[in-house]
Write a structure and sequence with these properties.
Elements lengths: L1 E8 L5 E8 L2 H10 L7 E5 L2 E15 L5 E9 L13 E7 H14 L7 E2 L9 E6 L7 H10 L5 E8 L6 E8 L10 E5 L3 E5 L10 E9 L8 E4 L3 E2 L1 H5 L6 E5 L6 H16 L6 E5 L13 E6 L8 E13 L8 E8 L1
Parallel strand pairs: 7-10, 11-18, 13-16
Antiparallel strand pairs: 1-2, 1-19, 2-5, 3-4, 4-5, 6-8, 9-10, 12-17, 13-14, 13-15, 17-20, 18-19, 19-20
Helix pairs in contact: 2-3
Length: 345
Amino acid sequence: MSDVSLDDYLGKIGSAAVTVPLPNSQLAARVRAALDLGRTAMWIERGPDIWWGGIPWTANLTSGARGDLGLRIQAGGWASYLDHRAILHTQQAVAVDQFDIVRGLIDYSASLAGGDIGIEYDTEQLSGTPRDRTYRRYDQPRIREVIDQLASVEGGFEWRIASYRDTGSGRRIKGLQLGTPVIRTGESEIVLDHPGPILSYDWPIDATVRANVWQSRGASDNKNQAAESLPLMTELLVDSQQLAAGWPRLDGTSDYTTVTDPDTLAAHARADLAAALTPRPIPELTVALDRVALSPALLGATVRVRIRDLWWAEGLDRRYRVVGLAISPPLRGRPETAKLLLEAA
């Protein structure tokens, strides 16, 4: 393979892209036999470690002016499989720990014919937060969508399906990782300096996502066919403290079209307002991989960032949690780099 790029995140699906050069008919036949889009598993290894795993969903065969062939393959992380799985049988949980609800949805996915792709998990880990949830077969929700909704509610959690090698057997594992309120990994922090291993950075400053008034909309109530069908609505949440401090009123709304319980919808609204009141910037650092040891295992770990330049004249020295990592291949005149997405620790 060549031109290998990959990314992985907490909170969204990672992806990978690789190019397979096809210099002769033997290798082309080998690739055709090995690659079955939507069915093949792809693992990317670096030395003894697994850096990424997922499912190739698309490919593009390209021919150059001299007749040279290459196959560009695009793959999504293991969680992308759950975008292709719908809840076709009503699932109900009453006072069940939210981690057990997630594991139950993974079990449901695996219990149907052809649905088990080998996702493993820790059965003992609990969040301590019980939930009531009903997922109706009439809504046909996608499994990843309902897990994301469950994770984003007030008192929620983070989740991902990680790829790693079992230290004892060497077996490759697709492991469900859960953490409340967030996933944290690593025992020792990495120090990143600019100037230094940090080649460049992007630091967004954005008020377009702010809000101090919020209302969420749920599923439509169509029990009475003779009456107008209206959606479930939360009460209007207003942060009077911010308004009293002189902020202009900024309205925010959100839709949860499969949520039928008023309390659940209210918890979504409170979580959405809390996130919109003081949005956290997600800085991006571009780091030279030949100057610092990084790997996808860094997701959830804490790094110490030290920057001194014209903007940070007094010097920035803060700790952040790594929530995303993207690896870019080396280009002419540029080393292999990693882009880190950060969140305030």
